[in-house]
Amino acid sequence: MSSSTKATTKSSWYKRNEIAVTPWLFLAPGVIFFLFYVIFPIFQSISVSFYEWDGLSDPEWIGLGNYEELYWDDAFYVSLRNNLIWLVLYLLAIPAGLFIALFLNQTVMGIRLYKSLFFFPFVISQVVVGLVFTWFYDPTFGLLNEFIGIFGLGPINVLGDERYVTYGIIAAGIWPQTAYCMILYLTGLNAVDPEQIEAARLDGAKGWRMLWHVIVPQLKPATFIAFVVTIIGALRSFDLISIMTNGGPFGESRVLSFYMFEVALSEYGFRMGYGASIAVVLFLIMLFFIAYFLYSMYQDDKGGR
Amino acid sequence: MFPTPIEKSPRSWQLTYQALLPVALVMWLLPLIAVALFSIKPDADFTTGNYWGLPSSFNFVENYGKVFFASDMPRYLLNSVFITVPTVVGCVILSSMTGFALGVYKFKANLWVFFMFVAGNFVPFQILMVPVRDLTLDLGLYNTKTGLVLFHIAFQTGFCTLFMRNFIRALPFDLIEVARVEGVAEWRIFWYVVLPLMKPALAAMAVLIFTFIWNDFFWAIVLTQGAESQPVTAGITSFNAQYRAAYHLMSAGSIVAALPPVAMFFLMQKHFIAGLTLGAVK
C-alpha cells in the first residue's frame, strides 16, 4: 500500500516536472563532456599562463612574468604581425569565392561536375595542400618557377625567402578557403529572388550596379557565414605552416598558434606557461570576434521562436 | 537568375564560356594535377630532371604498390578510420540529444547553454592544448586512439549542437505539440517524432565531421606519436621522412591520404553541401 503511493508520488513528481527536467537529462552528457574538455581547459590555460612550468616538475608562480617576457620577445611580434597579415589577406577568399560562384552559376551541360571539381580543394586535408604547394613553389622544379621562367624571371625560392614566405603560405591557404566561400555563394545565389532581379533589370540596372545593389544585399546570410569561417580559419592557421616551413626561415613565417606550439611542445623546451600566455593572447583576439558573432546570432534569434 | 543565363546571351559568348570552363578548371586544380602526374612517374624521371615531361614509363602500380605494401601507410589509414568513425558516431549521438534539448524546450538557461557551445566551438584550439594534453596524460590515454577520439567528440559537439539545434528549430513545432496533447512521453517524442525528421541533418553532419576529423593534424601531433596510434595526416610526415626526395612516392602517399574524404564528398555530395551551407540561405 505505502509502496504504491510512494511510486505514484514519485512518478507524478516526474510527470509534473517532465518538461522542465527532460531538457537537462538530454543536455547532461554533451554538456559534461564539453565542460570537461573545452570550457574548463580555457580557464586552466589562463591560470597556467601565470606559472613557469615544464610540464613535469612543480609549477612555479611567477605572476605576469610570462606576459612581461612576451612584451620583450621579438619572435612574438613577428608572429603577431603575421597573424594580422593572415587575417587581412585571408578575407580575399570571400570576394574570390563570390567571383567564381558568379562564373559558375549557369546551366550548361556538366556544370554540376564543374562545381564539385572547383570545390574539391576544400575537401583535401591541409597537410596535403601544404605538401602540394611546397612542391609547386620548389625552386628547382616547381611549376611556379617553370612558369615565371617563361618570362625570363626567377627562380625565386618562395618558402626560403623571408620576404615572401608568409604570402606564399597564405596563398596556399586561400585556395581551399575560396572553394568554401564559393559553395556558400552558389547556394546563396540559388535563393536570390528572381522577381527582384527582373524588376531591377526593367529599371535599367545591370552588371556591377546590379551585383552591388541587388544581389549582394540578398547574399548577406552567405556573406556572414563566409566571414565567420574565414576569420576562424585565418586565426587557426597551423597545419600549413608546420608542413611547409616549420616556422622558417629564421622564424619569419610563424604565427601565434605555431609559435605557441613551438614554445610548449617542441625541442626548444617544454615551456607550458609561456606557451599558455601566447595562447591567451590569441584567445583575446578571437574573443573580440566571438563576441561579435554571438551578438549577431542573438539579434537573429530574437526574431525566432 | 544572376548573372544573365548563358542561353540568353550571344552565341559567341556562349562558345567562349564553354571553352573557358575547362581552362579555368585546369588552372584551378593545377597543383593537384601536378601531384597526380608525379605519382605515376618512375624514379628515373626525377634523377634525369624530367619533371614536367611525359612520364618515361607508367608506374602507377609500382608507386602505389610501394605505398601500400612497403610502408606504414596502411597502418596510418586504419588508425584514421578507427579515430574518425567512433568520433562521428559519438558526435551524432550527443548532439542529437543536445540539439533536441535546445531546439525544443524553452527554459531560462537555454540561450546561455547554446552560446557556451557556440563560443567554445570558435575558440582557437591552441588555448586548449596544454590542459587537454595534460588531462589525456592523467587519464593514461596519451598516444592512444581513445584519447584522441574523446577529445574530438567533446570539441565537435559544439559545432554539431549549433547545427542540430538550428535544424530542429526549423521543424514544424505543431507535431511536438500534438504528441504532447496525446500524452506521449518526452523521450518518446525525441525517439519517434523528432529523430526520424532529423535524418537528413544527421547524414549531413556525419559527412562533415568525417572530413574534419580525417583531416585533423594539430591534435594528432599533440596527443599521439608513432605508428601505433597516429592518423594518416600525421603519419604522412614520417612517410615523407622515410622517402625523402622520392617525389613519386611522396605524391602517391599524399593522394592516398587525401582520398577517403574526397570519396566521401563525391558519394554524399548532396548531404555534404547541405551541411556546409546550412544557414547560407534565409
From TrEMBL, chain A:
GO cellular component terms listed in the entry, alphabetical order: plasma membrane
Biological processes, Gene Ontology terms: transmembrane transport
Principal place of residence: membrane
Membrane-spanning residues: 21-43, 84-105, 117-137, 164-189, 210-235, 274-295
CDD domains in the record: TM_PBP2 (cd06261)
Membrane topology: Multi-pass membrane protein
Protein known as: Carbohydrate ABC transporter membrane protein 1, CUT1 family
Species in which this protein is naturally found: Epibacterium ulvae
TrEMBL record, chain B:
Top-rank taxon, per record: Bacteria
InterPro entries given in the database record: MetI-like, MetI-like_sf
Gene Ontology terms: cellular component: plasma membrane
Protein family membership: Belongs to the binding-protein-dependent transport system permease family.
Organism annotation: Epibacterium ulvae
PROSITE patterns linked: ABC_TM1
Taxonomic placement: Bacteria, Pseudomonadati, Pseudomonadota, Alphaproteobacteria, Rhodobacterales
GO biological process, one term: transmembrane transport
Span of domain ABC transmembrane type-1: 77-268
Cellular compartments annotated: Cell membrane
Pfam families, A to Z: BPD_transp_1
Bilayer topology term: Multi-pass membrane protein
TM annotation in the entry: 20-40, 81-104, 111-129, 149-168, 189-214, 245-267
Keywords: Cell membrane, Membrane, Transmembrane, Transmembrane helix, Transport
PANTHER family attached to this UniProt entry: ABC TRANSPORTER PERMEASE PROTEIN MG189-RELATED-RELATED (PTHR43744)
Name this polypeptide is given: Carbohydrate ABC transporter membrane protein 2, CUT1 family
